[in-house]
């Protein structure tokens, strides 16, 4: 299964969501899961992973899912190559056994056009970074995800799952 993960922070704690699907172009999730955390680390500029990583690992442990690839909302590497972001920390925490694809909605200094993916009629790209899979494959996988809009259907679904709690 490919598993997309996201985290939402209500007034207290966190709600972590996951949707799993077999193929990159699937329109519907085969499975979804919500994990709630009462305690989360405070936001620390430049170290977002310290807040989000325990949430993602908690969901993976509680759900028991065995993904063949993980998709996170954000960057794997903040410069596209060597400055670790959330996705790289997740990849490392899992012992490098599960590829991680990061899909970010906003540009980040150091991320080049080689990471940009245009979807639908949007002129605003998504930015794809990855670990454990080559960039060309990750970009092609994200480009072919279901949905006519900039944000793929299942990435919008996991965002909504978290927000609804």
Fraction in beta strands = 15-25%
Helix content class: 25-40%
Characterize the main sheet.
7 strands, mixed
Question: Which term fits the overall shape?
Answer: globular
Strand order of the largest sheet: 3-2-1-4-5-7-6
At the first level of CATH, the class is: Alpha Beta
The end-to-end span amounts to 22 Å
Structural class determined from secondary elements? alpha/beta
Number of strands: 7
Name some characteristics of this structure:
165 residues, archaeoglobus fulgidus dsm 4304 fold, globular, alpha/beta, seven-stranded mixed beta sheet, single chain
Structural write-up:
With 165 residues, the chain is of the alpha/beta class. The protein has a single domain (2-164), classed as archaeoglobus fulgidus dsm 4304 superfamily (archaeoglobus fulgidus dsm 4304 fold, 2-Layer Sandwich), CATH 3.30.2170.10. Helices cover 27% and strands 24% of the residues. It is built from 4 helices and 7 strands; from the N terminus they run E-E-E-H-E-H-E-E-E-H-H. It has helices at 49-63, 86-93, 135-143, 153-164; strands spanning 2-8, 14-21, 31-37, 69-73, 100-104, 116-117, 126-131. The chain has a 7-stranded mixed beta sheet with strand order 3-2-1-4-5-7-6, with helices on both faces. A hairpin with a 5-residue loop joins strand 1 and strand 2 (14-21). The model has no long low-confidence stretch (mean pLDDT 93).
């Amino acid at each position: 299964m490919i598993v997309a993960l996201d985290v939402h922070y209500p007034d207290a704690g966190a709600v972590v969501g996951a949707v799993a699907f077999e193929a990159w172009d699937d329109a519907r999730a085969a499975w979804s899961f919500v994990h709630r955390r009462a305690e989360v680390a405070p936001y620390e500029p430049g170290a977002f992973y310290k807040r989000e990583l325990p949430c993602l690992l908690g969901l993976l442990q509680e759900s028991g899912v065995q993904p063949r690839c993980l998709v996170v909302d954000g960057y794997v590497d903040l410069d596209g190559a060597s400055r670790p972001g959330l996705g790289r920390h997740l990849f490392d925490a899992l012992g490098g056994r599960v590829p991680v694809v990061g899909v970010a909605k906003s540009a980040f200094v150091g991320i080049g056009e080689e990471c940009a993916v245009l979807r639908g009629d949007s002129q605003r790209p998504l930015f794809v970074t990855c670990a454990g899979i080559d960039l060309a494959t990750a970009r092609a996988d994200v480009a072919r995800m279901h949905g006519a809009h900039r944000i793929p259907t299942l990435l919008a679904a996991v965002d909504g799952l978290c927000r609804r709690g």
